[in-house]
Amino acid sequence: MLIRDAFKTATRSLSHGKMRSALTMLGIIIGISSVIVLMSIGQSAQNLILGQVQSIGSNLIIITPGAPSGSGFSPPASAQGIVITSLRQQDADALSREPSIDYAVPEVRGQAEAVYGNTNKTIGYTGSTQDVFTVSNLAKVSEGRTFSKSDVDSGNHVVVIGPDLAKSLFGDNVDPLNKSIRIKNVSFRVIGVLSKGGTGAFGVDIGNLVVMPITVAQKQLLGISYFNVIIVQANANYNVDFVKARVTFILQQDHGIINSSKNDFNIQTQADVLSILGTVTSTFTLFLAAIASISLLVGGIGIMNIMLVSVTERTREIGLRKAVGATDSDILQQFLIESVLLTFAGGVIGILLGAAAVGAVYLGISTFSPSLGWSFAFPLSAVLLGLAVSGIAGIAFGIYPARQAGRKNPIDALRYE
Known about the structure:
Blueprint: H1 3-16, H2 18-54, E1 60-65, H3 89-96, E2 101-116, E3 119-128, H4 132-135, E4 141-144, H5 149-154, E5 158-161, H6 163-170, E6 180-183, E7 186-194, E8 209-213, H7 214-222, E9 229-234, H8 240-255, E10 265-269, H9 270-313, H10 315-323, H11 328-368, H12 380-406, H13 410-415
Parallel strand pairs: 3-8, 5-7
Antiparallel strand pairs: 1-9, 1-10, 2-3, 2-6, 2-9, 4-7, 5-8, 6-7
Helix pairs in contact: 1-11, 2-9, 2-11, 2-12, 3-8, 9-11, 9-12, 11-12
């Protein structure tokens, strides 16, 4: 039998039982669409996270206290509940004198309640120098100004707040500029409102962020003299790896460290962070796709069961075909093509439904959370995977019923009632 004739016969057979064919394809449709949706969402999340990290500049070096925990990015010691005081003002001063470094910006961080009148909001606050706005891409304000070097040196009680916090504390009818808010019973004057909100790099909630002079944060809110992190911006004329080596050398000298294994600081470039985050998000996407693929297995088993039932129901047809000259391979070919057509059609429908679901998710997020910056991602690999898996499932789960059909004895088949 020619392939063309086998396709016609298989198509005619499937069209006779439209409802059965549709229900048979349902498992494959659900499985493929689930894989498409989860891979697309995983890719979108990866793009969002990596984009946030890249948005703060490609020439940044992040220094955290504590000994290195091995290769890759590790969270700050403070995030692990460990207090390490190895980064101090002398380190920031020494780094600032290095020609290959444009900025060495120390930061301290904390969490507290911000209070205005009878309204309060839990916020994360950052104490830093005036250069934090340049290094962290926070220089643009929708109202007012950022604080200056004189504010830092004088320990002025001034803050720049995120737009979401401004709306939460002051509403739409009150101008937040020059209003006083309290943080840990310390009064601060609002001098600026950041122009953008949403989530920034490393999960920082910029919309509810409060930025203040580091001198005030250290002495009056936290009662410390050390830093949680120092962010270094490399000069554009120098290679980032060279600057990283210089930072390591300077800190080792400043801390009196001779053996690198005794370092009490940890250094990551943005390339290190992006590499680890990319690996984590890719692994997470594959994990989601693997979970969704379980439904493909269930759908494939369903197809095999239906094809076995079909072989039993069409036993007399098989016997008649063999009686007029059809070979075992012709019968096997026909039933295998039916199985592949079912799964392939289910795969195509699943891809279309998955694309529609991804579009709906993107539309919903962009409508209700536009500040999140969620991007539409529909990876070609998900489509190719869907088509490949559906084709393979058709062959893998159709071969057994097809072989059973091809092996039937024509005399026994004709006698079957």
